[in-house]
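User: Hi! I'm a student and our assignment asks us to look at how structure tokens line up with a sequence. Could you show me two examples?

Assistant: Happy to help. In each example below, the sequence comes first and the structure tokens follow. Example one:
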Amino acid sequence: MYLLAIDLEYRVIIGISAMVILFTSFIISFVISHRKKLQYHKDLHILHQEQQRMLTEQNELLEKGVQQRTAELSKQKEELEKTISHLKLTQAQLIQVEKMASLGQLTAGIAHEIQNPLNFVNNFSEVSTELVEEMEEALKKDSKEEAVTIATDLKENLRKIAHHGKRADVIVKGMLQHTQISTGKKELVRINELANEYLRITYNGFSLKDKSFYAVIETDFDERIGKVEVVPQDIGRVLLNLFNNAFYAVIEKKRQLNGSFEPIVAVKTKMGKSGSTDKAETISIIVRDNGCGISSKLVHKIFQPFFTTKPTGQGTGLGLSISYDIVKAHGGELIVETEEGKYSSFEILLPLK
């Protein structure tokens, strides 16, 4: 009995000890867990602060980079605007050079055109002066019959002077009409006359610059073509460019062949049909020369601004580019056919409406 009581007491003590140990373990585990949680939150807070610091630094660096890049782009923009402005100015100057070159060609041609009637006026004026002197002598001799004859000749001379004076006036007015600043307004113009007029003026301009210049001119104007609605100054400028190029090409070929070559420039106009209708809907002005032709490697570039096959100082490279734009503005096409060393042909294709 006594042993049983001791055993029971011992078991109770062991149980209580176990509970104490278990509770103590729990407390220790709780404390450790709590400390770990506190340390975790502390570490998390430190990490968050570090992330915030790094993010702030990155933002500052990014902002500085953006500001620096913005400044660089602003500078580049200013430089680009200056470059564009300079290019526009240069282009305007080159276009003006092209216009002045065309004007110079026209002026030379007009001077030659006017020279013929002026020569007639001067010659008949001199002859008329002599006739007046002869008439005075006849009247002094009281030779009325001779005076009447001289007066008849004098009257005829004055009629011829008036005729050639009016001819010069017509030439000047016609050229002023074609060379004045284009208003962009379309007018009804006789295409055949316009083409023939500019062809003659261009040829005369080359003749004045080079007394040895010679080229065969062949024309085939379709008489069915009447008046066509175009901007005469602009189409005249296209024709002048094409004629200039044609005469230049045959001159160069003749020079290359040491003169053993007959230069030919042909100008043709014709009416064309479009689609299945029999009604004419287009007109063509074709300028063909038997000059040097254009290389197949270069022909696709000829309508590009500033492209030229002429030596430096002899071309701005704007003539065909401007001509192309003018024809396009009329709703037409500027078509080229060429074979190097043989010929070049440019066709201005314009709609009738």
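Example two works the same way, sequence first and then tokens:
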Amino acid sequence: MEHVTRRETTPVRIGAVAIGGTHPIAVQSMTTTPTEDVAATMAQVLRLAAAGCEIVRVAVPHPKAVRALPALVAECPMPLVADIHFRADCALGAIEAGAAKIRINPGNMEPDAFLRVLDAAGARGIAVRIGVNSGSVPMDLIEAFGGPTPDALVEAAARYVAVAERRGFTSIVLSLKSSDTLCNLRAYRRAADRFPYPLHIGVTEAGDADYGRIKSAAGLGGLLLDGIGDTIRISLVGDPVKEIEAAYDLLKATGRRILTPEIVACPTCARRGIDVEAIVAEVKAALKDLRAPLRIAICGCVVNGPGEAREADLGIAGGGGEGVLFRRGKTLMKVPESKLVETLVAEARKLARE
């Protein structure tokens, strides 16, 4: 299989989680509850943690939200990021409350307020995500580039990074988000060439759970295959827990981070000799608890099946009510269709233990 060379970035620590460098691409999400409702917010945080979320962001739009942060930070099982717009006082309060990172869009702040946030974050040793998106590019750059183009997004980021670096602040994470997938892709690629800092990748305003997954894959898949991206959020409408599965699925599909078995299958054309759809569903259910980076191929015919199954860690190629089981290119045995699922599952668990 082809391998991706990871883009080199300067590692930045977000609480107990390090991103950039050779660290795994961290999966994150954002709560949808009013932050000042500590019980509801913490309940959602715990659901996100159970789903595999590694960094969580909460909105901090006013002092009531700031006052809730100490209780949330104390109970949060992962690094908590304060999402700030417009109000430097809320950013400063969040820093004092123990937030692991501050997310700000400097385009929504006065220059002196941005400096105060950088100074306070530097004094506490926490990171700042400098977020630029297509809706907040400074007007002079909009005019210079003819709109919120990829170059406009990158130049806006460069402007804010330069301010931070002159201030001696380098615990920076960058994001350059657009709802236009091509603009998103090009902006991040240009940022990767220009800045040494970790990139938080995502597509803003991606959509509902179904379309948003597809749009995020279109806007982010190419980046991941290029080795770009140090932390990821798949922004979806509704319950944020859905974002976690979507993120891990995209990381798995691009080969960037595989924690659970990847089950691939042929498209069940009329040549199939076994019930591929049923077998896939049963194997997926039987291995849902398995934490192992295995690639399992389930192929329904003898045309392409044997070759494709041999390329996986485990694979079956079916025909005539039976299947041939392959393990890393070697034929193991023939199995009746009625025994395929239990045999494949047993071999997967055995391989995971080795």
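Here is something you could point out in your write-up. The radius of gyration is 23 Å.
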